C-alpha cells in the first residue's frame, strides 16, 4: 500500500471508532491536513447522524461546509467529545509534532477542548524520538527574529517559513536539527519565549488513541 492508501485506511478506522457514539447533538472536533481531509470526506455521508463540527482551520471548515456539515465556533460549543487529526510525527507515548500545514495553534486549542484525541497517521509518522520532522513554532511577526535567536540557544536551527501566514495572521519558524529528548519540558520551554504563540509539540496534551496505518492493517494504540 502507498502512503495515500494507508491514510485512507486510518480515516476509515476513525469513522468506525466514533460512528457508534454519534448522537444528534454531537459536535466533533476536526483537524487539518491530508489525512484529516480523508476523514472529513468520509463524514459527509454521516452528516444526518450528528449536529456538526468545530474546525481547526479555515480550510477544514470550508471542506466540512461543502459536504453539508454545519461548522460551529468553539466558543459556542465548549467541549467536543472527540478531536480527530493527523500528525507529522508521533511516538509511543502519543506525543506528536504537528503544524506541517501551519494549523498548529487552532489544532492545539480544539484538542485542549476535546475529551478524546484520536490521532490518525500512516506508519511513516511513527518514530522513537520526535524531531526529525522540523518542529513548527507560530510567532507574532514582530518577534520573529528574537524568537529565532532564543531557539538557537535551545539547540535548534530555526528557518523562517517564507510566504506562510497562519489563519491567525502570524508567521511560522521551523526548527531543524532538533531532536527532542523530553517533549513535555520542551513544549513548555518554547512556549515560554515571549512572542511565541505556540509550538507544534503536542505532549502536555497528547493523543489518547493512535490509529496507525501499516502494511498489515491499522494498529490501534490506546493510552486510556
Ligand atoms: O498543520 C497541519 C497539521 O498539524 C497536520 O495535521 C499535520 O501536518 C499532518 O498532515 P498530513 O495528514 O497532511 O500529513
From TrEMBL:
EC number: 5.3.1.6
The protein's annotated pathway: Carbohydrate degradation; pentose phosphate pathway; D-ribose 5-phosphate from D-ribulose 5-phosphate (non-oxidative stage): step 1/1
The entry's keywords: Isomerase
GO biological process: D-ribose metabolic process; pentose-phosphate shunt, non-oxidative branch
Keyword Flavoprotein applies: no
Gene Ontology CC: cytosol
The keyword Electron transport appears for this protein: no
PANTHER family: RIBOSE-5-PHOSPHATE ISOMERASE
Family the UniProt entry places it in: Belongs to the ribose 5-phosphate isomerase family.
Self-association and partners: Homodimer.
NCBIfam families assigned to the protein according to its UniProt record, in alphabetical order: PRK00702.1 (NF001924), rpiA (TIGR00021)
Name the UniProt record assigns to this protein: Ribose-5-phosphate isomerase A
Species assigned in the record: Vreelandella boliviensis LC1
Chain's gene name: rpiA
Amino acid at each position: 500500500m502507498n502512503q495515500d492508501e494507508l491514510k485512507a485506511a486510518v480515516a476509515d478506522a476513525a469513522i468506525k471508532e466514533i460512528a457508534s457514539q454519534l448522537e444528534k447533538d454531537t459536535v466533533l472536533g476536526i483537524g487539518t491536513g491530508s489525512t484529516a481531509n480523508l476523514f472529513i470526506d468520509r463524514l459527509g455521508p454521516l452528516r444526518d447522524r450528528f449536529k456538526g463540527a468545530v474546525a481547526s482551520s479555515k480550510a477544514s471548515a470550508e471542506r466540512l461546509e461543502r459536504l453539508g456539515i454545519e461548522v460551529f465556533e468553539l466558543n459556542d460549543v465548549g467541549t467536543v467529545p472527540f478531536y480527530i487529526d493527523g500528525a507529522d510525527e508521533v511516538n509511543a507515548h502519543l506525543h506528536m509534532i504537528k503544524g506541517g500545514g501551519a494549523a498548529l495553534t487552532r489544532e492545539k486549542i480544539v484538542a485542549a477542548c476535546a475529551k478524546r484525541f484520536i490521532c490518525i497517521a500512516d506508519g511513516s509518522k511513527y518514530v522513537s524520538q520526535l524531531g526529525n520532522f522540523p518542529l513548527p513554532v507560530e510567532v507574532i511577526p514582530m518577534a520573529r527574529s528574537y524568537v529565532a535567536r532564543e531557539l538557537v540557544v535551545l539547540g535548534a536551527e530555526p528557518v523562517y517559513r517564507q510566504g506562510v501566514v497562519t489563519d491567525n495572521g502570524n508567521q511560522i519558524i521551523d526548527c531543524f536539527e532538533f531532536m527532542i529528548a523530553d517533549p513535555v519540558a520542551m513544549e513548555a520551554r518554547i512556549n515560554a519565549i515571549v512572542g511565541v504563540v505556540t509550538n507544534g509539540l503536542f505532549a502536555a496534551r497528547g493523543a489518547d488513541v493512535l490509529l496507525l496505518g501499516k502494511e498489515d492493517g491499522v494498529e490501534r494504540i490506546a493510552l486510556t
